[in-house]
Each structure stands twice: as structure tokens, then as C-alpha cells.
Amino acid sequence: MAQQQAGDYRILHEAGLRDHLAGLSDLKALLGGDPASWSITEVGDGNLNLVFIVKGARGGVAVKQALPYVRLVGESWPLPLSRAHYEYLALSKQAQLAPGLVPALLHHNERLALTVMELLEPHIIMRKGLVAGTQYPRFVDDITTFTARTLFFTSDLALPAAGKKEAIAAFAGNHALCKITEDLIFTDPYRIAEQNRWTAPYLDGLAASMRDDMELHVAISRLKLKFIASPEALLHGDLHTGSIMVTESQTRVIDPEFAFYGPMGFDVGAVLANLLMAYFASAGHERTPGERQAFERWVLETVEKVWIEFARKFLDLWRTQARGDAYPVSLFPGEKGAMRLEAERHAYMQRLFTDTIGFAAAKSIRRIFGLAHNADFELIADLKSRATSEARAVRLARGMMVEAAAFRTIFDVTGAARKLRDWQPELSG
Ligand code: SR1
Ligand code: MG
């Protein structure tokens, strides 16, 4: 477990970071030139940490330092520095399992809760690209390789039980970050909570109806239990489109500070939810009706392909690389055994699909009624138009959670999304 050594920690401002990097010979050489001439800019726009871009005469790096509190809220909400340790551990594992799909790690200092990584240029945060209506042709292949490999190879299908338990233990101390998810995703949006906010007054009625909707409360509580009590695989833990950097030809997954052993559907669901939110937000970003049709078609095709390709790659790994203690091959001998095991693999994927769409729904609802919203909706300046897009996303999400049986395939999800594209909700106010 990560040790907190609060005495040695200090927040590094520009001068402190310059001195720290200048003292590391490899990084000094990579940056090049006189350290005094390095440009250092704090660019963090996430909810938790400081992020610097440092550029020298020869090259650049990205530096992330954990703050001892939640940046979005301030010092009144303390948060352990140990999250930098778990992020480093997760990035190292992901680099091994999904090479080329995470930034290269260049340096980590446990005491300072600081990690130096490859500078990703000219990559941008995927969410910003989606708001602008950009399509990313490599995304499906890259994100499904990332999710299929990181989830499969850290699961009981690939690991012996003892190794898996050790791996769970290595991340068990990251519970403060899990608690953020347990509160902000699985609890607060469904009750009165000080930090909740929504597009008022237009969504006031919808917010109130969600607080009164016991079927929804049962569904979110089942998902919360699954999140807390199902250490299936090492999750990224916060795999939204703000944690993905892209160009049209490259994808890099960043920021796994919420990593822990949890249910696989949580990561895949995060990807699907954020694509669906980009889809529903798109109408609010139109300057002329219909101008983003091609983009919207691409987003829904991407939703379909993310699930289909993830499932195909995961099943392929299971058929060829299953060295774990789950499903012993000795129990499935001969042709009859092989056929029964293959049927069970498909049943497993169906259960995983149901989890995935449930988690995807939870991830959409939290961005509309909880503390941390996303730019897809927030950048829609007209509040009525924003609330309309959000209400469409919520209607789909409620269905995915409460009427899960109606969503047997990913095409049921995209079909329902398509039908809601021009639905006019009744707004309050
Ligand atoms: C207080 S942290 C809010 C959110 O930011 C992170 O990106 C996670 O999604 C978390 O829930
Ligand atoms: Mg993050």
C-alpha cells in the first residue's frame, strides 16, 4: 500500500518544478538547453490535480502532481496523495498490457505525488474534438484493444487466483477515490445533496421525479453494489472522453487515478456513456439544422462498434489466452465440453453487456444532476436547448437502467437513441 509521507510533500509551483526536473539528468537531457529557459505552463483543467507542460530547447514533457485536496472544490475536500501511486501503478500495468495506448512514463516521485510523462502533441482531449464534431477513425480499434486487453489480462480468466488476490490487494488502498465514485455516481444524483446541480429551472421537475423514482433507486443500488463488491478486473476507473487524448490516427488513455479492481462493465460503460452524451449534445452545437448529421451517424456507429469489437476481442483472448483459474478446461473435455464452454462464454458476454449499459446509464445521469458536469452539455449556451439535450440523454439512461431487458443488443441502445434525437421533453420553468 502507498505510504503517505506528508512531511516531504510540497506543491510544486513553477520554480520548484524547474529545480526538480533540472536535478534529474535524463529529463534534463530530454528537455535540453538551460533549465532557466524552459517554459513551464500549468494547463490542468481536470477536477483533481495540477498538470504542467514543460518545454525545453530539445523536447517537452507533461507533469502531473496530485494536490492534497479536490481541485474542483478546494481545501475543504481533502483527498489522499496516494492516488498518484495508484495511477502510476495502473499506468505501468496498462503500458505492459496495451502498449502504445497510454503515455510513456518517464519519472515518478512518490513523496511529491508527481509523475512525468511523454508530452502528447498534437493530441487533444477527445471530448473537445467531439464537441467540435470531429470523427476519429482509429478510436474503435484502439479503445477496444485497450479495454479488452486490460480487462481480460487482469481477470480470473487470465490470472491464477492467488496472483489475482495479490493484485486486488495492491489497489485496495485507493478507496478514497472509489468513495468519490460511490457518492457522486451511485448516490447523490438520486437524493438531495448539496453538491448536485442541473440546468435549472428547466430540469427541476425531472430532478424531483428522479428523487421519487423507486424503480430507478433499486436499479442504481444494484449497480452500486456491483461496483463495490465485484473485483473482476483492474479498471481504469474514470474512462470518459476527458481521459482520452486523440489525433485522427492515434489514441492515448490517460489519468487512471481511480484505478481499482471492480466490475468490467464500468469501464466499457464509461466509453459508451460519453459517446451517447456527445450524440445528444450534438443538436445543441448545430448552427444550422442537420449540419452535424454525418457526425451523429458516426457517433452511433462508434457506439455499436465499441461494444461489438470489445466483445469480439475479449472472446478471442478468452479462447486463446485463458490461463486463469476460472473455467478449468478439464471440466469441459472433448467436443461436447468445448461447445458448452463456448455457449457459456456468450452467456458471460450477455451478462457483461447488461452491466455495461447499466453503468453507462449511471454515468450519463451523474453528469446531468451531480457535481461534475461535462463540456458536451455545458458548452451549449442556450439553457433550454442544453436542458432538451440532457433530458433526451436521461430518458434513454432511465430506460437502460430500469428496463434493461428491453436492451438485449447494442443496436437496441442506438435505435432508442436515434428515436430520441428530436423528442421534445416537457421542461419545467
Ligand atoms: C470530485 S471529482 C469529480 C469527478 O472528476 C473525475 O474525473 C471523476 O469523474 C470524478 O467523479
Ligand atoms: Mg481525471
Q: How is this structure best described in words?
A:
With 429 residues, the protein is α+β, with helices and mostly antiparallel strands. The protein has 2 domains: 14-118, Phosphorylase Kinase, domain 1 (2-Layer Sandwich), CATH 3.30.200.20; 124-420, Aminoglycoside 3'-phosphotransferase, Chain: A, domain 2 (Alpha-Beta Complex), CATH 3.90.1200.10. 50% of the residues lie in helices and 11% in strands. It is built from 15 helices and 12 strands. The chain has helices at residues 14-22, 25-31, 83-97, 126-131, 139-153, 161-171, 175-184, 204-211, 214-229, 265-282, 293-321, 334-369, 375-378, 383-402, 410-420, and strands at 39-42, 49-55, 60-66, 69-70, 74-78, 105-109, 114-118, 124-125, 233-235, 244-246, 251-253, 260-262. The strands form 4 sheets. The protein has a 5-stranded antiparallel β-sheet, with helices on both faces. Strands 8-10-11 form a 3-stranded antiparallel β-sheet. A hairpin with a 4-residue loop joins strand 10 (244-246) and strand 11. Helix 10 packs across helix 12, helix 11 runs antiparallel to helix 12 (334-369) and helix 11 packs antiparallel against helix 15 (410-420). The longest helix is centred in the last third of the chain and has 36 residues, at 334-369. The chain starts with 13 loop residues before the first helix and ends in a 9-residue tail after the last helix. The model is unreliable at 1-5 (pLDDT under 50). The chain binds 5-S-methyl-5-thio-alpha-D-ribofuranose and magnesium ion. 5-S-methyl-5-thio-alpha-D-ribofuranose is lined by residues 47-48, 70, 72, 180-181, 184, 238, 372.
